Amino acid sequence: MASLRSVIKTTAPRLGLGRARRFYSIPSAAKQDVRIVEVGPRDGLQNEKASIIPVEVKVELINRLARAGAMTIEAGSFVSPKWVPQMAGTAQVLQGIKKFPGVHYPVLVPNERGLDDLLQLLDANPGLTDEIAVFTAASNGFARANLNCTVLESLVRLGGVVRRARERGLRVRGYVSVVVECPYEGRTGYGRVREVVRELVDMGCYEVSLGETVGRGRPHQVAEMIEEVKKGVSVDLLAGHFHDTYGTGVANVMTALQHGIRTIDSSVGGLGGCPYSPGATGNVATEDVVYALQESPYHVVGSSSGNTIDLEQICDIGWWISEQLGRTSVSRVERAMRSRKSK
């Protein structure tokens, strides 16, 4: 069977895929610095089953996260509200949030239509965001369930989105789902993950986040997957995105750091889930990651006091947004700190 790369090459010339010079160069962080991408307002909220979350609540959440020191905060998604109702109003969210200096507010753009909507907004309101995210999967089963196409077809579609976004001066970050296990196909081939990541980098993504979407991955599997992907791209271009379904989220974060990754996606209050991965719970909680890295060889980069993310503020935010959603925070650190304060 022809490799993904060989098939891509046959369509690359007419679609603008293949190796491309990135418009942006992201300086490598200091060896022990860790950057957190806060995905709560997008990946965390998009699967909420409760009534539609008001725009003003999303705006307040994002502003609170920025005040706590988060420097990259996913603000929403330009996807059809028919398919993801909780992402309705992303344009209004971008217009309503306070822009903190040095903070990036990326938005997910799944297709050309989503990019058209974003660019139309930016034509009238320049400066609302400087970054988009695009996504695909490492298995055809998940791609068909989530995107209604194969992995190859999704990459072909994304080629035009990435090219047009970069031509407009937007940074582009990539996501690859089910990098360890797929709910439809079982164990994912790590070579396949490497190929998909390589294609996203070649089309112009400055970074690719490795999504352990199901949340069943164990540290040794995460280590094996990362080492395989590193054969195709520099570890400086990789990020880790872990769900905590089986309680291994923080352990997998630590494993990713040990294998050279320095960017971690996390969600305040452990918000999240995945509609296409039955049983998958939320993303690893930002509070739990920040706590685990305190007094360690790693430093969480942020804009709060000490140039980090303020743990107590993040815990307060997690408790607040969980109350807004009528749920209990799943962050272990947050619950422990709340219990200690109540005594």
Automatic annotation (TrEMBL):
GO terms for biological process: ketone body biosynthetic process; L-leucine catabolic process. Pfam families: HMGL-like. The keyword Lyase applies. InterPro entries: Aldolase_TIM, HMGL, PYR_CT. It comes from the Eukaryota. GO terms for molecular function: hydroxymethylglutaryl-CoA lyase activity; metal ion binding. Keywords: Lyase, Metal-binding. Residues 34-315 form the Pyruvate carboxyltransferase domain. It catalyses: (3S)-3-hydroxy-3-methylglutaryl-CoA = acetoacetate + acetyl-CoA. Its EC number is 4.1.3.4. The keyword GTP-binding does not apply. Pathway: Metabolic intermediate metabolism; (S)-3-hydroxy-3-methylglutaryl-CoA degradation; acetoacetate from (S)-3-hydroxy-3-methylglutaryl-CoA: step 1/1. Gene3D superfamilies: Aldolase class I (3.20.20.70). Belongs to the HMG-CoA lyase family. This is hydroxymethylglutaryl-CoA lyase. It comes from Hebeloma cylindrosporum.
